[in-house]
Please model this.
Amino acid sequence: MILYFLTLVLFVMGVYCLIAKKNIIKKIIGLTITDYAINLFIILIGYRANGIAPIMFKNMTMQELTERGVDPLPQALVLTSIVIGLGVLSMMTAICLRLYEKYKTFDMSEINRLKG
Amino acid sequence: MTMQTIYPLFTALPLAAAFFNLLVTKINKKAADYIAFLVTAALAVMAVLTIFEAPFAYRIGGFPAPWGILLISDGLSALMLVIINAIALLSIIYSIKYMTMYTAKPKYFSLFLLMLAGMNGVVITGDLFNVFVFLEVASLASYALVGFGCEHEELEASFKYLILGEVASTAILFGIAFLYSMTGTLNMPDLARQLEVLGINKAVAFVIALFIMGFGLKASMVPFHAWLPDAHPSAPAPISAMLSGVLIKAIGVYAIARVMFDVVGPNAMVSSILMFLGALSMLVGVFLAVGQSDFKRMLAYHSISQMGYVTIGLGLGLNPNVPPVIAAMGLFGGLYHLVNHAVFKSLLFLCAGAFEFRTGTRNRYEMGGLIRKMPVTSTACSIASLSISGVPPFNGFWSKLIIIVAFIQAGYYVYGAIAVFVAFMTLLSFIKLQRFVIFGQLPARFANIQEAPFAMTLPLVVLAILCIALGLAYPYLDQGALQAARAALLDKVSYMGFIIGG
Model:
């Protein structure tokens, strides 16, 4: 339970960073932290104390495997989610660099040509 | 029968084309145009063929249902596939000339195909995590396309859109993880069965809230709409047409409809939330639209307002407390308006692009009298304006009428009155547009402009004909594809049956 709580704290920290900071680099960091918090949450769903890898060996019964093996699906989901996160992160930094070239600043309150 | 074996090509084909496009361009610069055109044409033909198929499920890799991933084709998927791929084909034809204004055309086509692959993937899949993955593919490509011009405003809009879009994606992923921890499955027909047993407890209600926020942000319902009026006008015109016409429907409204109708099932709470958000979107969107001077920005605000009609129709369809006939009528109106909006809004954005291509401005107060110089584009623009403002016999009139009648019959007089009022405001706003852009005084500096090139006018003419045809064919639509789409949403039991039928 304490692990879930710590994940929630991480999530809230990321959201705070995303909302309160004006520097767009910090916003990107905040978004990445929220992403990692969700990834940790998915991993925790599949976690099992003293679990074994979900591979069927010769000297094992089906019951033993279902009792002790961890759920492999959340790990597969997290791998996919991390890859997507990488794509998003590189996209964000690329746009961020282009923004700096044009506006000469990372301050979101000065990047404000669109209104209404 | 053939469709059942080649169904995964809906995503595989554009994904492969997006990759090989860039390789082939190293050898031949012209090839990108042809590849993009041929791929989208093939997809459009396949989509039309899918309409005539009975519902089926395709197992990826042959794994049986709750373990493997299912691709599901039913009435709603087929309808969405036709809309997506038809508009994509027309946008590609339009892009071939229009994108000469920009550099790096092959990269543009690759991103376009990537976005198309993502949208098709969301529509055909039967697995909730797969929905998330394809949604991210489509969104990532659209972030890049919004900032394609790399000017100040475009980059700013792209960054805003990216941040808000990623917040939505995080919410959706969180919801999916939560749902998995409760049920232990991600297969949507299987999830529907598990939730039938579980009922709507507090955890499921939390997941529903996360989904409405996430998918609602992608569909830009009103409290989550801030990115749309920046992002849609900043993109190149064919991309604006794709974003406003198709993307917000495929990854926003379609996903909400699929999850709420087929997985969660009719529910009074969700229904009242969707109806309220729909009414709010309609009102806020149309009020903000009236005062805009930028042509495309005004259209973007109207997208928010018109998507409100679709949402409110879906909301009525979800309501278990009204008689089923009236709920089905509201849902039919919503789906009909979804099709109509895809047609007339992409037409309007393409017209705005054609005007910009020749005059070099998007400010509607600087234009005027363009019907004398660009008759085809102006006529198409007029037809689309009449459609969106709901003038009979164009298509927008019928779908709005059905929604309003359904609400009056269901006893929701306030929502009905809002729908009538918003239709009136839309008409007002588009009369103003006609007055400043198409009729009125021709400014002296536009004395020498010409009609847009053929590759740009052809999609306009096709879409304008569709606008009229969908309106005139209204009496026949009740038995056609729309009916199948409505049945797919209302029949939760047969959706759950896909798990065996695969």
